[in-house]
Amino acid sequence: MNIRLLLCLLSVLTAGVSFAAPAPSPAVWKAGVATAVITPEQAMWMAGYASRTNVSQGKTLDLFAKALALEDERGGRMIFITLDLIGIPRTLRKSLEARAEKAWQLPPGGLLLNASHTHSGPEFRVGRAPADDGEFKPSSLGDSYGRELEEKLFTLISKALESRAPARLAYSFARCGFAMNRRLPTKTGYQNSPYPDGPVDQSVPVLRVEGADGKLRAVLFGYACHNTTLALYQFSGDYAGYAQQYFEADHPGAVALFMLGCGGDQNPYPRGTVELAQKHGRALATAVEAALATTLKAVNGPVRSSYAEIQLDYAPAPTRDEFKARLASKDRYEVSHAKRMLERLEKGEKLPTQYPYPVQVVRFGDAVTMVALGGEVVVDYALRLKRELAGPAVWVAGYSNDVMGYIPSARVLKEGGYEGGGAMRFSTTHPGPWAESVEERIISQVRELNRLLSK
User: Are residues 188 and 282 both part of a single domain?
Assistant: First the structure.
């Protein structure tokens, strides 16, 4: 039989036969998303840089709050809220937690709040504005913004739950390279400056959410890097804001949500201009695209979560005389901190010895383990937990549920510097650095929550 005849025969035999792609997996999840603009409508003091001397002057990019509501086949729910803000006050977390439990019977572990830590957002955490002497003065704008924000977030949760529809989840990750360690070792200590040899976590974890029709509905993605490309007087979500904007523009109808990782000692480089923030945003959005273009791992249920608050110890506080001696410092913030602590002591108050620190673990079946830690967590935590926790994918986020200050590892605490304790002088509540037990205390609680969810 010649080749031409064979080809003709094959064409007849296969006529009318289609070779379809494998059927997609069932849409076993329900997912809903919602967004809200949270850009202040009037000028406010901005958060992040003590060097600012005036209120905001417009915006280069709107600030957003976004919610992703997920429900598994058994009815287990998980709600993620991402915010283009400097942080999350403990009071905001606790209020939303109580209201969500009352309205939707959502347990504390079923709510995860994460702040992008943009340094181009409003200062609302203490409801105050900086004064010339380094102290704070009352700010009604900060107070009212905080109250309005809580109502917007409560409404956001409601809208996300109402929009739930059948969905599929999948996970993958890529990498992005503009984050760099910022703890440069020098003869005089650790300086806030680029340190290319320092530890980093440049992974970009991505959770894809698609509808039953296969259409992309949302992506939840992370990166471990300060949102400090910009230090201007315009509101902006910085690189994370641009990454979300670019991805959504490339995927009309989809919502992009950013979760900040353990970026306490990581900065974007280079930095300083809107153009650089846009370039970093484009690089991160491209990394998300790369993750989606690789082999995606299907994420099935159930979703299980656990939340706990542990008492983190402070190192022994300075004595009254030691605080008084600091009043002669040339560092005005050290002076201000000493004044605040002395005022409390003179009122007969005791300085705190512990802080209620939030730890959260979320398990998506056997596919993904997510750890959410409070505060400005340094990268050592992410690297360690990825080594030590079992499972194919471990996603570690910082800046979650309460951003009370820097959370150093044992190494960083011993080395000192800004993240190791120096930043505490800007605090209105912390008496000083954390105790040496800080890392082991947090890691132990993560292990315990993960063990409970593994049963």
Answer: yes
pLDDT for res 428: 82
Could you tell me if residue 420 is inside a domain?
no
Could you report the per-residue pLDDT of 354-388, keeping only the tens digit for each?
999 999 999 999 999 999 999 999 999 999 999 99
Of 169, 181, 397, 176, give the one whose Cα is nearest residue 285: 176
Question: SS3 for 425?
Answer: helix
Q: Can you give the residue range of the structural domain that contains 72?
A: 29-299
Q: Do 345 and 211 share a structural domain?
A: no
Cβ within 8 Å of residue 371, ≥6 positions away: 359, 360, 361, 385, 389, 394, 395, 396, 397, 446, 450
For the record, the structure tokens of 350 come out as 């005791």
Cα 115–Cα 395–Cα 109 angle in degrees, nearest 5: 65
pLDDT category, 21, cuts 50, 70, 90? very low
pLDDT in tens, 263-303: 999 999 999 999 999 999 999 999 999 999 998 999 999 99
* CA 201 – CA 115 distance, rounded (Å): 18
Q: Do 255 and 338 belong to one domain?
A: no
Asked whether the beta carbons of 378 and 265 are under 8 A apart, the reply is yes
Closest CA to 400 of 441, 343, 446: 446
Which residue intervals of 294-401 are DSSP H helices? 320-326, 332-346, 379-388
How far apart CA 79 and CA 220 sit, in angstroms, is 12
Domain count, the chain: 2
pTM of the predicted protein model: 0.92
Q: Where are the beta strands (DSSP E) in 281-328?
A: 297-299, 303-313
Q: Is residue 24 part of a domain?
A: no
Please state, in angstroms and rounded to a whole number, the distance separating the CA atoms of residues 125 and 136.
Answer: 12
First to last CA, the chain: 64
Residue 407, domain member (yes or no)? no
- 60 and 198 assigned to the same domain: yes
Within 10 angstroms of residue 359's Cβ, the number of other Cβ atoms is 23
User: By three-state DSSP, how is residue 291 classified?
Assistant: helix
In a domain, 121, yes or no: yes
Same-domain pairing of 342 and 202: no
